[in-house]
From TrEMBL:
Residues 248-267 are annotated as: Disordered. Belongs to the SIMIBI class G3E GTPase family. ZNG1 subfamily. SUPFAM superfamilies: Hypothetical protein YjiA, C-terminal domain, P-loop containing nucleoside triphosphate hydrolases. It holds the Pfam family CobW_C. It comes from Pseudovibrio ascidiaceicola. It catalyses: GTP + H2O = GDP + phosphate + H(+). This is Cobalamin biosynthesis protein CobW.
């Protein structure tokens, strides 16, 4: 009798999306989900802040209390988890589901080094079933054109100082270099804000900082074709010798390693607080009032959800520096709160005055 064995099923591809605060990661992910209606995507979002709102910024996932032991089904059949330092248990939980995902998309916090995350895919319970299809680094093109790594470097510093989970204190420029070193694809975001010549200059700058063969593409408003983001089959977890971080490369070459880097700001230089907010008359008013609040001295970031009169869908808000994004998220629940992150000692009353001039939303 001849016995035949089924060929092992193909590994589930995982895409790691990294990039600094404000680079456009969430917008890119949101567009990816909207275009992937026929795929069951597990979305893992690395949260930050008093309220885990980064996960809710993805259209359809608006549970600010989503945590590592909770799985939220998105409107298009996707799965959303917010995780901090328990990535492996989350992956194992997803793999134990009756319907495993077709693709795993991981949006990092922007401060996490991609290298340790990629190595986590070599864990015995994960490696046989999942592979890193690609590491996608989203780069703020206008910032690079201006000689910076992020449009609002103070906001990045604030996020950095407020994140107690960070176990590295590398300068931001080194983190940027590490994100590029690990990349299989670099997305130059906000391309619509640059001329063709400026964009070409940014591309040339980035080209000199990535490995040979890494593709560099430009995007406006997070719009990229699905086949650009998926299907690269990089197997990054098996290719880490070519993706070493700055400190790993130093160690590999027997250089002295100094663990005593210092932040430009200490943790106590920053603070965050949550404000209940009023009802707004329109989406335009939301944007205008948040823009006003962002101009209060010391404010670095505002995020959350608000209510517009006559609308059942809440408005999700994401503001960093001069950029304010606000959009209706159908099917989502509003928590009528905004998280404000900024320098210690900022005038909270001025921020509240800009956002809460009328009645507070009753919960």
């Amino acid at each position: 009798m001849t016995v035949s064995f089924a060929a092992p099923s193909k590994k589930i591809p995982a895409v790691i999306i990294t990039g600094f605060l404000g680079a456009g990661k969430t917008t890119l992910v949101r567009n990816l989900l909207m275009k992937a209606q026929d795929k069951r995507i597990a979305l893992i979002v690395n949260e930050f802040g008093e309220m885990g709102f980064d996960g809710s910024l993805v259209n359809g996932c608006a549970d600010p209390d989503c945590s590592a032991d909770e799985v939220v089904e998105l409107a298009n059949g996707c799965i959303c988890c917010t995780v901090a330092d328990d990535f492996l248990p989350t992956m194992e939980m997803l793999l134990e589901r009756e319907q495993v995902p077709d693709v795993v998309v991981i949006e990092t916090s922007g401060l996490a080094l991609p290298q340790p995350l990629v190595r986590a895919f070599n864990w015995p319970s994960v490696k046989p079933r999942v592979t890193v299809d690609s590491v996608v680094t989203v780069v703020d093109a206008p910032a690079v054109a201006a000689g910076k790594v992020a449009s609002d470097e103070e906001a990045v510093a604030a996020q950095r100082a407020a994140d107690d989970a960070l176990d590295h204190e590398s300068p931001v420029e080194e983190l940027f270099a590490d994100q590029l070193t690990c990349a299989d694809l670099v997305v130059l975001s906000k391309a619509d804000l640059l001329t063709e010549a400026e964009l070409a200059a940014v591309k040339q700058t980035i080209r000199g900082r990535v490995r040979d063969g890494v593709e560099i593409v430009s995007a406006s408003h997070g719009e990229l074709a699905l086949d650009v983001l998926l299907g690269r089959d990089a197997g990054a977890e098996d290719d880490m010798d070519l993706r070493l971080s700055h400190h790993e490369a130093q160690h590999a070459h027997d250089h002295d390693h100094d663990h005593d880097h210092h932040h430009e700001h200490s943790h106590d230089d920053f603070e965050s607080f949550v404000l209940p907010v009023r009802r707004f008359a329109s989406l335009e008013e939301v944007k205008a009032q948040v823009e006003t609040a962002m101009k209060v001295s010391g404010v670095l970031r505002i995020k959350g959800s608000v209510v517009v009169d006559g609308k059942t869908a809440p408005v999700l808000v994401q503001a960093v520096g001069p950029r304010v994004e606000a959009w209706f998220a159908a099917g989502s629940e509003s928590h009528s709160k905004l998280v404000v992150i900024g320098l210690a000692g900022l005038d909270k009353h001025s921020v509240q005055a800009a956002l809460s001039e009328f009645e507070l939303v009753k919960r």
